[in-house]
Amino acid sequence: VIEDADSVQSAFWREWKSKLEEQKNLADQARALEEIIPGIETARFLSGDKGYVRDTVFAFIDSVRHEKRHILQNALKLADAYGISQFE
C-alpha cells in the first residue's frame, strides 16, 4: 500500500514538474516575441493561429523595411521559426 502511494506521489510530482517546465518554456517564448514585436498577442501567436502569425510577421516586416538590417534578420528568423513563407 505504501509502495502504491509512493508511486502515485512520484507520478504526480513528475507530471507537475513537466507542466511547470512547459509553462516556463511558453513564458520564455512569449517574452522573446514581446521583445521583437511589442504589443503582440502572444497567446494567439503561440496557439498557432496561422492567419494572425502571418499577418503579424508581414506587418512587422513592412514596418521595419527601412530600419537596420539586424531587425529584418530577426523578423525573418521569427517567420522561419513559425513556418511562415514570405510567398504566402
Automatic annotation (TrEMBL):
GO terms (BP aspect): retrograde vesicle-mediated transport, Golgi to endoplasmic reticulum
Domain of life: Eukaryota
Gene Ontology cellular component terms for the protein in this record: Dsl1/NZR complex
Example of a GO MF term: SNARE binding
PANTHER family, sorted: NBAS SUBUNIT OF NRZ TETHERING COMPLEX, NEUROBLASTOMA-AMPLIFIED SEQUENCE
Annotated protein name in UniProt: Uncharacterized protein
Organism expressing this protein natively: Nymphaea colorata (pocket water lily)
